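During the first year of the project, the team set up a workflow for recording each protein of interest as an amino acid sequence followed immediately by a discrete structure-token representation. This format lets reviewers and collaborators read both layers of information side by side without switching files. As required by the reporting guidelines, we include two representative entries from the current panel. The first entry is reproduced here exactly as it appears in our internal archive.
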Amino acid sequence: MCDFNQILSEKLASLDVSDFGFADISGISVPFGESFPNAVSFALKLSDAAIDSIGAEPTASYFHHYRTVNAYIDMVALRVGMLIESLGYRYMPVAGSQSIPANEEPYSGLISHKTVARLAGLGSIGKSALFLSRKYGPRVRLGTVLTNMPLTTATPQDNTDICGDCDLCVRACPAMALKGNVWHDGTARGDIIDARACSEYMKSHFQHIGRGAVCGICIKVCRFGGRI
């Protein structure tokens, strides 16, 4: 019998991802109705220099780095998915950065990368609504591949009050979009962040940098950045 975890682990390692894991997502429905009980989650670490270049606003260098990493995430998801399909199973790659306007929840994608990454044991979610990698804090971008391939899946990391009394991100957010609440399993995104306020602030203030698509201030100020 094939050890699918080992096969996928070797492929992910060959693609130089920073961290990866396997998640049971049987409790999460996908919009197109197909049953995918498992998922591959992976993280790519962002450049510390690119993030540290952010000041009161993002930089052109950070925007370019953000786009480049997203493109690589999509390539990794495709390569992993093609391997899954070659072994006789189905897959659906989730775009590295994509909002679906028809979704009931605004500014959301096919499935939450952060939710899948937490289920895969890669980390937790902070007051910033950012994913906090167990290795790199918020300085990562996430990728996801949904599949019906049988996999041995991880135990999610306990998220109990990981931020403590720290509110650096809340105070630094120029859009005042962060509410300072602690995330727990089942917490609605709207209880942590006003996604509309975040998006509209970027569009109105950072059009001259990446057409208002990035900010990154909360990532830069987080005390977990590269120091977990």
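The second entry, processed by the same pipeline in the following quarter, appears below.
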Amino acid sequence: MKIRFAEPRDKEFVVEFTRRTWEHGDYIEDVWDTWVNDTIGKLFVAEVDEKPVGIMHVTFLTPDYAWLEGARVHPDYRGRGIATELNKVCMNWAKENGAKKIGLITAETNYPAHKVAEKASMRKVAQWVFARINLDTFMLDNRINLEEIKTAESSDFMDIINFLSQSEGYKKVNGYFSWLYEILPLDKRFILQEMKCHRVFIVRDKETKRITAVGFQEFYLDWETHALSMYLGYLDGDPEDTYKIVHKVYSLFKDNNIKKYRLCMPATENAKKLLEMLPLSREPGYLRVYEKTL
């Protein structure tokens, strides 16, 4: 087995064996060129029998936090320790280039990935639940007064910090924001940045004025539809009030030809209760984040 940097000539073979990763395909073809040309990361290939039968991408999310993603091994070559070797090489590269910590995210049911991570002494630090709303059947709930759901302003900042510091969900995800299949620290700097862009939504209790729910909204270009999609990368709080945020965000952007509406939340009982209130296009999935100090 030879581990090396990926080259453009590897693309055709890799894309072919990853086309059927899931029933709906795989995104590797869409990100290949970006990963090969990543100026702060590297795409590694495992070569066996002169074929690129395994890949893994390592990049930096912050100057000292590295990220592993896109681990794929050709079905005919699984069980040979290829993912373990790719993992090891990527970690060494990250450490040599200044990483103090490295992480990855994987499905709760992806047991081979768990085994590879745990073999590398990584530990589970966060658990998310993610879901996709069925936009064909989703309708605004006319019982909700959408004016009650605010876009957070600078005066709300400390109350948001206090809400998160007491939140079971915030602890469940180790203080992270989920950016699709990557993470970012949901810290003061990030919150201020999102507030400045009008992407933070809050609900307050009418009597106590305390924040009872918070949501951070983003857009992304979906790899399946190649269209603009909507995303709540952190949604937390009372189920009735997170329900209101889901509707508020949809009301603002429903005319933008949105093709998908996805939610990512700390895997708590509140999240489960919210999902029971919404029409989903498929069963909710669970993700776990592994980390290791280098």
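For the second entry, the following points were noted during internal review. The mean pLDDT is 94. DSSP finds nine helices and 14 strands in the chain. Both points are flagged for discussion at the upcoming steering committee meeting.
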